[in-house]
Design goal:
By secondary structure, the protein is an alpha+beta fold. It has one domain: Alpha-Beta Complex (Lambda Exonuclease, Chain A), CATH 3.90.320. It is built from six helices and five strands; from the N terminus they run H-H-H-E-E-E-H-E-E-H-H. Helix 1 packs antiparallel against helix 2 and helix 1 packs antiparallel against helix 4. About 4% of the residues have low confidence. The structure holds iron/sulfur cluster. The site of iron/sulfur cluster has 13 residues, from helix 2 and helix 6.
Length: 165
């Protein structure tokens, strides 16, 4: 596998909607006034005020480093999209291992549900991340976005006006 040029956000959306991966990857701006986007920003600001340091690495990943531990943290509003969230953290672990030679653990934080979920980079998860990266690259190379497929997430999606009229 060559250089990693995608970020954790695309991994998260890959497990939700391939069309959204294409839209984000092509720099198409979503509706910034979408209620879910605003709520996500708000929770992130409040919860992190005193607890974390955000660290950008290589312009590829932006991680939340929890004090005193070799842990990559990530905050989510709910555990509804747990698979996506876990794979996003797994991607960060993968990136740190492959590009920086640092083995870390992952921790997914869901403050509104008072939940913490550990994420480990097992060989199976590593293989799954590599497959996701390859597939995302293929999606982005395509001239057109994948056809819209209606899923429950569409109701809250900031791109819904572009997919459904
Ligand atoms: S509205 Fe639905 S189909 Fe369109 S990008 Fe969002 S999740 Fe995907």
């Amino acid at each position: 596998m060559g250089e990693i040029n995608i970020g954790g956000t695309l991994i998260w959306y890959y497990y939700i909607c391939k069309r959204e991966v294409w839209l984000i990857g092509h720099g198409i701006e979503p509706d910034q006034e979408n209620d879910y986007i605003l709520l996500g920003k708000h929770i992130h600001e409040i919860f992190y005020q005193s607890r974390k340091k955000e660290l950008g690495i290589d312009n590829v990943i932006k991680i939340d480093v929890l004090p005193g531990r070799m842990v990559i943290g990530e905050i989510k509003k709910s555990s509804k999209y747990l698979k996506s969230a876990k794979m996003q953290v797994a991607f960060y672990l993968y990136y740190m291992k492959r590009e920086k030679g640092i083995d870390m653990q992952g921790l997914l934080l869901i403050p509104e549900e008072r939940k913490k979920v550990k994420v480990l980079l097992t060989p199976e998860v590593e293989g799954e991340i590599e497959e996701a990266i390859r597939n995302i690259e293929k999606i982005l190379e395509s001239e057109r976005p994948p056809t819209a497929v209606r899923i429950p997430y569409c109701k809250r999606c900031a791109y819904k006006d572009m997919c459904w009229v």
